[in-house]
Structure formats: structure tokens, C-alpha cells
Specification:
30 helices; 6-stranded mixed beta sheet; Alpha-Beta Plaits; 15% strand; single chain
């Protein structure tokens, strides 16, 4: 009995047969094509399929098999499964398993009017099938209860008990076999489980189950509608998506870089669309292993949709298998397999990105369509080298950055006009300065040259504009940097790093705190599990003198990543400014225990000086200077002298900080509350004018 909702959703009970080729992912691409062709021919030749009309049957390709949706009774998929099993006896090299379930299915029409079939009935049939091995035809209890009312089926139904399937759901399953059809053996998933007593299928419940089936469709419709309403209430936009890490199905594990590269390229193309919310790759990477509950993942990421996929690379061939899932229902909105030459990988990425935008009914401008279809290089080898570079760059280690640099340079040897490779080089130099003891004097000019070259080749690269902006921050030029960050966001609205850098590195030093906080909140929305972005949102509250909010945000960040020393340090700063000196010292001690660097010792010395413990402050100060040789953190030394009340020496160290290009710290000279005791001093004001310019936003 169908339930109507709106023009885009039509629900009814479907009887679904899900079919899968066992061991498909381990086959070569040519072998996969051959097996899939064999299976398709067998299915189409069955009487149950051959005599069905389009109105009676829907056939959905699933990548390594297919799903058949029947509309009359559960007998249809059961008869079809036995026909397929009989035909497979002539094909011992084609191991197949099948699962059957009756449940809600929906016809969803996209913006172009094309229809897709999705729903809990299809997803549950797949879960049922997943519990079996080659040869098995497994039924959900619901289907078995429908079949047992027909005398001919009862002898063929063999109760198995419960099986735990994806997302922790437990299903009671029944094995359908009649020698020689089917597989009488206990499935492997049941062999390790504690046996459960078999239960008879109760004929007295058939009427109740029929009623339940009718109610299920209504319940599903209600659930879909409620989710949409709840999503709006929870501020989860319908046009939002996270692209989870793609599984590497290639026989060579070193091709992991290629799978990650495909994921990142698809994400990057979709992120160009301003009408969509797209989660950053750094937040989705924590779900690299087999994902758990997709609803929970989507809630954590703040999205309504998930894209899952796998990549198989073999010689000059590539297979990309993707599926778009509505997270609230775990419904597969569509699934596609792309078998292409390696040279056409950009075309695959563009097709997937466009289909995502189409499915989510995103409005595309002409420039966005052009950006999504861009081919950054025609050289396949250069592109592979670039993907390897991004793979190591994403590791966020000094060694990773250096390996990435080498790969980016190799890519340029193949294609000297590869703008993305130049942008990658700029990103490496910028982050080497931030993450390692690398010299800004040496690396900033190299980063600028690379970013400029990238923009000279392609001025529409948002990432390159952001990289150039961060170079300008290193050069203590926040106003020009601001324009570059804003241009980066205009070109790539979902680029979390650009929002992050705009907020903390450009707007905050200029005293535009409300705007800075708004940009950092947007960055957190796009990259919710980024520890650095969350920590700098906390710092932005501190700079705005909203200390209670800063402490709350930074405690969340510490919970997110307890081993991230910067978060503990920023929490310590907020605690100092709120008068909680002992708690702040505790955070600085935790920072030191994690990092063993001299920075937290200087922060702790500052806190002890404010407490009036001059002896302890000087002890830590001297210890930090010894540990930090040859280049000591000058800004931290200035803080210690502020705490000790020695303003002249504090300004001496701030001048040294400026000479050392400690841009992350000294750029905050106009706004950091720690420097309040120096405000009004002529030497201090002269230095501040040199760094930021004449004061425009008075601080209290």
C-alpha cells in the first residue's frame, strides 16, 4: 500500500533480492567484467525476470552484482533466487550469494526528473545477504514468515538464528535451500556465534505481519519527513555531504595514495559549489577504517549525505565504485561503477562531482561548472606524482612535508605548467615553518615564489590564493593577506583552511573579533575534527576577551585531541586571563609533558611571575632559554618579563620577536590581552605601528 509524501518521494513495500559475486574485489578488472556479464545474462534468462514487465520489476546495478525489486509477493524473489542457483551449477567459477527481504522502498526523482530506487528494504536485503557465503540464499524472518503460509516452501526453510550486521543491527535469518540448490552449510558468520535455539515460524502471526508491513511504509515515510524537519532544527542543511576515505582495492598497497587522491579530487571539485556544505578531508580521515553507524558519523560531521567509494588501479586501468547515501535512513540514493583508462580519471571525478551536485539539487554557476570540469594537467604521470605529494603532505610531519616537496618537484619535471604542484610546494614551505623549526627567512621567499607561480598559471586556484595569503601573514602583512583569503573563499567556499586563516591570522590581529569568530566557526563547521581550527576558535574568544567561552571551547578541543599540546597551551592562556593561575600552570605542565619543548616552560614562568613566585619564574625562564637554544621563543621571553614587571626588557624581547619573524605571535601585538601592561609606552606603540600600522581599533 503506497504512501504519498511529495513529488520527489513515493514509498511502498518491495520484495528485494540482493545478489553479490563473492570475492569480486580480488579479481582483475577484466575478470570482474566477465563475471558480471555472466551473472547478468543468467539473471535476465530466469523465467521470473523474463516474464516481468517494467512495472513489476526494478533492476538496480550494485557494482559487484545487482538488486531486483519485485512488487507482488515474497514468492517472486524466492523463485528467482532458486532459478539463479540452478543456472549457476553450470558456472562453478562464479560464486554468488543472495539475500531476500521485504520492506519499504522509495522512488526518488532528482532535479532533472530521473528516478532512483532507494529505501530501507533494499539496504536490509543487502545486510541479509552479507551474512551468507557463496551459494547461500538467506531470508529475513519477515520474508520467511510470508513464505511459510505456502506449503511448498516450508520444507526448504531452515532457521539460523540471529546475525549481527552493519551498524550493530541484529537480524533473525532463515536459510533457503533444497538440494542441490542453495548452500546447506552454516554460514561462517554464525559459526563463531553462540548457537540460539531455533524457533518455529508461527502461522498465527501472518495477519499481524501483513498489517505491520503496511504500517512500515507509513512509518518509513514519517521517519523521512521527521528527519528532514529535525535536520532543519539541528541546522544540518539538506545540501550537505561528507566524502569518506575511499577503500584501496588494488593488489598493491602502495596504491593507497591513489585512492586518497581520488577522494580528495572529488571532494575538491564538489567544494567549489557555494550552494553545498562539504566537509574537509582532515575531518573525514578519522573514518578511514570501515565506517560504523553512518547516521552517527553524519551527525558528528553535520551533514545529511555521505559518499562512500572504492578505487582499484591496475596498469593503465582504473575502476571507481561510489555510492551516495542519505545518512538518516542509510538509503542508497545511487551507486555507480566507472571503468576507465587512467588518462580519463579527471573525467570520472568530474562526473561524480556533477552527479552529487545534481542529486543534492545544488545550484551551479557557470564558473562553478567550469571549475568542477577543470583538467589541471594532461600528463598522467605528473598527476600521479602530485597525488603522492598530497598523500605525504596530509601526514602533517616534517618528514612528510619533505617527501611531498620531492614529489611535487617530480610532478613539475613532467609538466612545468602544473599549477597545483606549485601550490603544493607553497603549502609545504608554509607548514614547514608552522610545524617544524624551519627558518621563516629561508622558507617564506620560496613559499611566495611557488604561490605566485601557481597563480600566474591559474589565477582561479583558491588553494594558491590561501597559500599566498599565509605567506603574507609571515611577512606581517595581514591586510593584503585578508584579500587573498577572501579571494580563496570566493573561489572555494568550502575550503576550511581559508576561513581558518582569514579569521585567526588576518582579522583577529586587526581587531575585527566578531568577524574573526564567525569565520572560525564556519571553519569548524567544515572541518569539525580539526584540532588546530578548534583551538584557534578558542584563541579568537580569548583575543575578544570572552574568556568563559574561550575556556569552554578549549576544553572541548582538549577532549577532541588530548595529545595536542597547542590546545593545552591556549587553554592555559585563557585560564590565566580569567584569574585561574594554578589551573593554567597545570595545563602548561601537560603541554610540556607531551612536547618536551621550551615554549610551555616560558608560559609557566609567566604564570608563576603573575602569582608572585619570582624564584620559580626565573628558574623556569633559565631552563627554557637553555632548552630552546639556539633560537629561543622571544615572544614568550617578553611575557615572562611582563609578569616580572620589567617592561623595558619585555619590549626588548618583543623587538627580537619581530626580527625573528615570529609572525604568529607578534602579529597579535595590538590585540593580545597579555600585552596590556605595555600599551601606551612610546617604544611599544612605535613597534606596534611598524608591525600592524597605526592603531585603528582601540583595545580596553
Amino acid at each position: 500500500m503506497p504512501a504519498e509524501s511529495d513529488d520527489n518521494l513515493h514509498l511502498e513495500i518491495g520484495h528485494v533480492l540482493f545478489i553479490d559475486i563473492v570475492g569480486y574485489s580480488k579479481l582483475l578488472i577484466e575478470e570482474q567484467k566477465e563475471r558480471l556479464h555472466q551473472l547478468t545474462a543468467i539473471v535476465l534468462a530466469t523465467a521470473q525476470v523474463r516474464t516481468s514487465t517494467d512495472e513489476q520489476l526494478v533492476r538496480l546495478p550494485t557494482g559487484d552484482g545487482m538488486a531486483l525489486v519485485f512488487h507482488h509477493s515474497a514468492e517472486e524473489p524466492a523463485r528467482c533466487a532458486l532459478e539463479i542457483a540452478a543456472a549457476l551449477q553450470k558456472h562453478p567459477d562464479l560464486p554468488v550469494r543472495m539475500g531476500i527481504h521485504s520492506g519499504p522502498v522509495s522512488e526518488v526523482r532528482d532535479v532533472s526528473g530521473r528516478s532512483n530506487i532507494a529505501g530501507a528494504g533494499i539496504n536490509m536485503a543487502q545486510r541479509v545477504m552479507d551474512c551468507g557465503d557463496a551459494g547461500h540464499i538467506l531470508l529475513s524472518q519477515h520474508v520467511a514468515d510470508d513464505l511459510v503460509q505456502y506449503r511448498q516452501w516450508a520444507p526448504r526453510l531452515h532457521d539460523l538464528g540471529d546475525c549481527e550486521v552493519k551498524h550493530g543491527v541484529r537480524l533473525h535469518l532463515v536459510n533457503l535451500y533444497a538440494e542441490p540448490l542453495g548452500n546447506a552449510a552454516l554460514p561462517q558468520k554464525f559459526q563463531q556465534a553462540k548457537p540460539k535455539p531455533a524457533r518455529r515460524i508461527n502461522l498465527g502471526w501472518i495477519a499481524a505481519l501483513a498489517l505491520a508491513a503496511i504500517l512500515a511504509a507509513g512509518a518509513a515515510y514519517y521517519y523521512f519527513s521527521a528527519y528532514r524537519s529535525a535536520s532543519k532544527g539541528a541546522a544540518i542543511p539538506e545540501k550537505s555531504i561528507a566524502v569518506l576515505p575511499f577503500e584501496n582495492l588494488s593488489r598493491d598497497p602502495e596504491n593507497a595514495y591513489f585512492a586518497e587522491g581520488i577522494q580528495e579530487e572529488i571532494l575538491t571539485r564538489v567544494a567549489k559549489v557555494a550552494d553545498l556544505k562539504v566537509i574537509s578531508r582532515t575531518s573525514t580521515q578519522r573514518f578511514k577504517s570501515a565506517p560504523g553507524d553512518l547516521r552517527q558519523i553524519a551527525q558528528q560531521l553535520g551533514v545529511a549525505h555521505i559518499l562512500e567509494g572504492s578505487v582499484q588501479k591496475s596498469a593503465d586501468q582504473v575502476r571507481v565504485n561510489v555510492q551516495l547515501i542519505e545518512a538518516a535512513t542509510d538509503a542508497h540514493l545511487w551507486a555507480e561503477i566507472y571503468d576507465r583508462k587512467l588518462t580519463d580519471v579527471f573525467g570520472v571525478e568530474t562526473e561524480i562531482a556533477k552527479k552529487i551536485a545534481d542529486s543534492l539539487q545544488a545550484k551551479l554557476t557557470g564558473s562553478e561548472q567550469k571549475a568542477m570540469a577543470a583538467r589541471p594537467t594532461e600528463n598522467t604521470e605528473a598527476h600521479e606524482l602530485y597525488l603522492k605529494g598530497r598523500y605525504f603532505w596530509g601526514k602533517r610531519t616534517g618528514d612528510g612535508f619533505r617527501k611531498a616537496l620531492d614529489y611535487f618537484h617530480q610532478a613539475l619535471n613532467q609538466d612545468p605548467n602544473y599549477a597545483l604542484a606549485y601550490a603544493g610546494i607553497a603549502d609545504c614551505y608554509v607548514l614547514l615553518i608552522a610545524w617544524t623549526p624551519a627558518s621563516p627567512v629561508e622558507y617564506l621567499p620560496k613559499a611566495r615564489a611557488a604561490a605566485n607561480k601557481a597563480l600566474e598559471i591559474d589565477n582561479s586556484l583558491g588553494e594558491a590564493h590561501a597559500s599566498l595569503g599565509e605567506v603574507m601573514i609571515g611577512e606581517l602583512n595581514p591586510r593584503d593577506a585578508r584579500r587573498e583569503f577572501e579571494r580563496a573563499i570566493e573561489l572555494n567556499p568550502n575550503y576550511a583552511t581559508a576561513h581558518h586563516w582569514l579569521g585567526i591570522d588576518a582579522l583577529a590581529p586587526l581587531g575585527e573579533h566578531d568577524h574573526a569568530i564567525a569565520e572560525l566557526k564556519r571553519a569548524v563547521e567544515l572541518d569539525p575534527f580539526s584540532a588546530i581550527i578548534n583551538a584557534n576558535l578558542g584563541l579568537s574568544y580569548t583575543l575578544a576577551r570572552r574568556y568563559s567561552e574561550a575556556i569552554a571551547q578549549l576544553r572541548k578541543t582538549v577532549e577532541l585531541d588530548p595529545a595536542f599540546p597547542y590546545a593545552h597551551s591556549m587553554l592555559g592562556e585563557a585560564l590565566v586571563l580569567s584569574g585561574q593561575l594554578d589551573q593554567a600552570i597545570g595545563e602548561y605542565e601537560r603541554t610540556y609533558n607531551i612536547s618536551h619543548e621550551h615554549f610551555p616552560l616560558l608560559r609557566a614562568a609567566h604564570a608563576y611571575a603573575l602569582k608572585g613566585d619570582r624564584k620559580k619564574a626565573l628558574q623556569l625562564f633559565n631552563q627554557a632559554k637553555e632548552l630552546g637554544k639556539p633560537i629561543v621563543w622571544a615572544f614568550g621571553c617578553a611575557l615572562v618579563h611582563i609578569g616580572l614587571g620589567d617592561k623595558e626588557e619585555a619590549i626588548n624581547w618583543l623587538e627580537q620577536s619581530y626580527r625573528q619573524k615570529e609572525s604568529t605571535n607578534i602579529s597579535l601585538i595590538r590585540v593580545h590581552p597579555f600585552l596590556d601592561p605595555l600599551r601606551g609606552d612610546p617604544r611599544f606603540e612605535k613597534l606596534a605601528d611598524k608591525i600592524i600600522g597605526p592603531q585603528q581599533n582601540k583595545q580596553p
